[in-house]
Amino acid sequence: MQTITRKEIADRISKLRKNKGYTQDELAKVLHISRPSLTQIELGNRNLSVIELKKIADNLSISIDKLLAEDFEIEEIQINFNNEYKGQLRISTPDLKVDKFKNILLYILEKCAGKSNFGETLLYKLLYFSDFNYYEIYEEHLTGAEYRKLPFGPVPQKFDSIMNQMISNKTIKRIKTEYHGYPQTRYIPLSKPDLTKFKASEKDVIDKVIDQYSDWSASAISNYSHKDMPWLASKEGEVIDYELAFYREHPYSVRTYYDNNVK
């Protein structure tokens, strides 16, 4: 008898859900698990117990025997979700928090501006990883900034207008210099960030990003960001969907998914 792999089971669950026309949010609500946890199940990154598998199968109106059969085929079977779940879906549209964005800029610059390698490109990437790491862990937006896929990696939108405003208000200073023979744009903080604007969880995520990446070169951090799933799965020039953070794999993923078990 052929053994069905975890990845094959994951693909079947994903295909069944899509065939019924339901989103991951809707099925996750019925299963009483988080949306990212269901994503990990559909990617084959989580082992499932028999009890968990039966609950998923029951809610997709299929028997475990059929789900695991060698001749598995998708049948046109409808499933019904209670209306209460329809009204509880989380909407993840980012909304830029300008004041939070400015304070995070000042905080990162306060920590990193003195490093000779720390130019504009590295600043872009620290903002990106802070925002997407926070979203992957907490399912909430940190700054709410949108990031666009550009050739040198994800770039925060409205960055220039915010920086120009901060320069006019004399909270930062922009300088042009060279680093290893290449032109470099640097920013120097002229005022301190308001730490009362940060939650402990936000500061923790930012500090970890700074510790991990602030000593990297611009080329190294750009190349690294190009292998992160949100950037890989986006088309050139389009805004990167925060939901793609749930499809990350090691070493990019920062969330422990196996704690989210089906109950």
TrEMBL record:
Keywords: DNA-binding
Molecular function terms, GO-annotated: DNA binding; DNA-binding transcription factor activity
UniProt KW Coiled coil keyword: no
Residues of the HTH cro/C1-type domain: 13-67
Tree of life domain: Bacteria
CC terms in the record's Gene Ontology section: cytosol
Name the UniProt record assigns to this protein: DUF4065 domain-containing protein
Lineage of the organism: Bacteria, Pseudomonadati, Bacteroidota, Flavobacteriia, Flavobacteriales
